[in-house]
From TrEMBL:
InterPro entries given in the database record: AraC-type_N, Homeodomain-like_sf, HTH_AraC, Tscrpt_reg_AraC-type_HTH
Residue ranges of every copy of the HTH araC/xylS-type domain listed in the record: 229-327
Lineage: Bacteria, Pseudomonadati, Pseudomonadota, Alphaproteobacteria, Rhodobacterales
GO cellular component, one term: cytosol
GO MF annotations, alphabetized: DNA-binding transcription factor activity; transcription cis-regulatory region binding
Key words, A-Z: DNA-binding, Transcription, Transcription regulation
Presence of keyword Transcription regulation: yes
Protein name per the record: Virulence-regulating protein VirS
Encoding gene, per UniProt annotation: virS_2
Length: 329
């Protein structure tokens, strides 16, 4: 007889979202009470609960925070800060192929609700996640979290070869996937039964130097003579993050934000000036090369809206990016 028991997952998978909710002013005790989930999950990460409860709680967090991109945001933060379940097992893998192998090994230990399969036909590599049963709650945000976690782990390992035009993702709901993660042209609406991510097979063997976002800059960037140079490198790597700020950068430096600000001031600069300069340099070079659209350049430089990027570009150069590009024709 088929197994009629509900799919179960470990509560560890919910904790990054609980922490995010709490950091943004949410009342976790009230949330768990309303969702009829024991407060014990805050310390018992191995406790198994129905996946339906996970989906409903994540959906409720998104509603209470008013965040349409909750899943993607938390997935990105998990990837960049090497935080949370699954992600912590991935940081030492250098190639995309090794990363995905490790991901498949790790994710299976957190529940029995899904099956993952990695296929490679020599042209494209395809990672498929299939649910074992039709979900009775909305999986849109959980799938966006998984997609963001994977994309933000793959992108730095691919380096300059990364091009979203070569990526295809089949998702439950395109509206919960922000442009800073993948453009609409890379998305297809699928069913609630799973998630698919496809990219060029060549990326599987690429081996870019990779370190998680919270690796101490003082340890991994010994080739830099000053703290400002290390921060400059960090900003260059992470400038596509619209929420990149001195707090995240200070955490990577193992410094308090005020200490980082003071040390940079002693070097006659500031975090804001360094980040702005990195974004300006990239934008001007990309506009000149003409290979990316203005929207793509905006996203790569951390702007969620093209209009904000246009204003910044005009401040940097005295002209709009469209005007600068028209001069090249």
């Amino acid at each position: 007889m088929p197994d009629s028991s509900p799919p179960l997952v470990r509560t560890a998978l919910l904790m990054p979202l609980i922490h995010h909710f709490e950091e943004h002013g949410g009342n976790v005790d009230l949330l768990l009470a309303d969702m009829q989930i024991s407060n014990a999950i805050r310390t018992d990460f191995d406790r198994l609960i129905p996946v339906k409860a996970i989906y409903e709680t994540i959906d409720e967090i998104a509603t209470r925070l008013g965040d349409p991109f909750l899943g993607a945001t938390v997935g990105r933060d998990m990837a960049r800060n090497a935080m949370g379940p699954v992600t912590k097992h991935l940081t030492r893998e250098q190639t995309v192929g090794n990363l995905l192998d490790r991901f498949l090994i790790s994710v299976g230990s957190y529940g029995n609700s899904t099956n993952y399969r990695l296929e490679n036909d020599g042209q494209n590599a395809t990672l498929k996640m299939t649910r074992k049963a039709q979900p009775d709650a909305n999986p849109a945000h959980p799938d966006a979290l998984t997609l963001a976690l994977l994309v933000e782990q793959i992108r730095p390992r691919v380096g300059q070869s990364w091009d979203p035009k070569n990526v295809l993702a089949v998702v439950v709901d395109e509206t919960v996937v922000p442009e800073w993660l993948l453009p609409r042209s890379s998305l297809i609406t699928g069913s609630k039964m799973g998630l698919t991510l496809r990219f060029p097979s060549l990326w599987m063997v690429l081996n870019q130097a990779y370190s998680p976002g919270d690796t101490p800059l003082g340890e991994t960037n010994k080739e830099y003579g000053t703290l400002a140079e290390a921060v400059r490198s960090f900003c260059k790597e992470h400038m596509s993050d619209p929420k990149l700020d001195i707090t995240k950068t200070a955490r990577a430096c193992r410094l308090h934000p005020k200490a980082l600000s003071r040390k940079l001031s002693n070097e006659d600069t500031s975090f804001k000036a360094i980040l702005e300069d990195q974004r300006r340099q990239f934008a001007i070079a990309a506009i000149g090369q003409g290979k990316m659209t203005v929207t793509e350049i905006a996203l790569r430089t951390g702007f969620t809206q093209a209009s904000n990027f246009t204003r910044a570009y005009r401040r940097w150069t005295g002209e709009a990016p469209s005007d600068a590009r028209s001069k090249q024709r």
